[in-house]
Hints:
Radius of gyration: 17 Å
Strand content: under 5%
Shape: globular
Order of helices and strands: HHHHHHHHH
Distance between the termini: 11 Å
Number of helices: 9
Largest sheet: none
Number of strands: 0
Helix content: 55-70%
Structural class: mainly alpha
Amino acid sequence: MSDTASPSGAPDPGPLTTLHVHRAVRGDSQSLAWLVERLSPLLLAQASWRLGSTLRAHCEPADLVQEAWLVLLPRLSGLAPHDGRMTPVLLSFLTTTILNRVHNLLRRHARRLLHTPASDEGTSPSQVQDPRSGVIAAATRAEVACRVRSALELLEPADREIILMRGIEQQAPEEVAAQLSLSRGTLSKRYRRALAKLRERLPDSVFHELLEE
């Protein structure tokens, strides 16, 4: 995601997401609300596909997204830029939190199949008392989330996985290429092609700020 810094160390005044990330880290609640609304549709798509149909019967994607934001809130001021960029750090934290929660659910589901009692690990979003949780919950129900998911569903399955891994989850291109058994060149070509389709279908969305390789 485009998030650069000027030679003086100040955030590049270009992409809106860049500016709001830096402001949110400094405690600006309005910028935080903007980021929640902007990024939650991507997180909902990730949570939905990573849960799969079986786990979605036990856990709503919106619950995972809300939990990820609530886990982030007390840690937000401590996030440090990587290579001068903050947005990928933020997105990586959120998507990793969701992936960890999905993995926990998978393990508990496997134990249930073996008839072994298992306690519910982690904290349910309903148990977290935070005045900002209402804003987060509302954002995860936004209509734009449905449009993002629909646009992603129109991609070929392999291209959708590339967008999830490379664009949304911010995995390194070398790791994605290895996991999908693709050359680095093929991965870059398919990633650019998939991004172009998403940008065409979703004008002015966050996909316009994801970096091409």
